[in-house]
């Protein structure tokens, strides 16, 4: 692990990332020894940092440290955490606080091999997502809602939990974004009020637009989701996972555009 460029694993107990969740993070797939979709991840760090008023280390510094941390590993996962840095007591940040950067490599997760082909089983969580436009879209460090949602199940067969806002709109999974096919059209939830604007979601939106079949971004209710023709999840590690079951209701994978899926898989790990 690298902390501010040095090998180590300790940060100050006064760091605002620990005290308040005051920071942003990225989880990045590593393939062929390189961080995948690097520019997209860096752009999201910058945009989250600028919304929160945290200065993100420059591109060259971060890329060099990520490469050092990957070392000779071929595949795996890089996590980058940037916090506002150390603070004094109280919420008000010190004007001279220096951001803390934490870069950590770990091995590739033990994902079910068949997830991509046969699809995954998901459930709908009862923990709601709070609506807050100031924080919506940002991959910030406050993840208690996802922690509470993930505590709701222990069944290894269930790969992901879907999270709704308090108006019963489907927003995303605990660690993923969601897309839905209905009558040949691809839809994904609007994230104006809550949710994380995933890097892989962004890639799907771009590729779909490039092939002339743009995704409709809109509010999706629980009942609309359950009436979908097909569903899939996205994140930076899984790329695309089709959903075959939501709380015991089966979904066909047939409506999923396989050309789109293979284009995403071609572009997700470079
Ligand atoms: C809450 C949440 N939503 C969405 C995503 C997907 O984001 P990305 O595609 O950038 O991996 C994640 C990824 O960890 C997440 O934690």
Category from helices, strands and their pairing: alpha+beta
Q: What is the distance, rounded to the nearest whole angstrom, between the alpha carbons of the first and last residues? A: 23 Å
CATH architecture of the largest domain: Alpha-Beta Barrel
DSSP summary, beta strand count: 15
Global Rg: 19 Å
CATH homology superfamily name of the largest domain? D-amino Acid Aminotransferase, subunit A, domain 2
How many structural domains?
Answer: 2
Ligands present: pyridoxal-5'-phosphate
Averaged pLDDT? 97
Query: What is the 3D shape?
Result: globular
CATH-derived topology of the largest domain:
D-amino Acid Aminotransferase, Chain A, domain 2
Low-confidence stretches: none
Query: How many helices?
Result: 8
Helix share, percent: 25-40%
Report the sheet with the most strands, covering strand number, pairing sense and barrel closure.
9 strands, mixed
Order of helices and strands: EEHEEHHEEHEHEEEEHEHEEEH
Quick one: CATH class of the largest domain? Answer: Alpha Beta
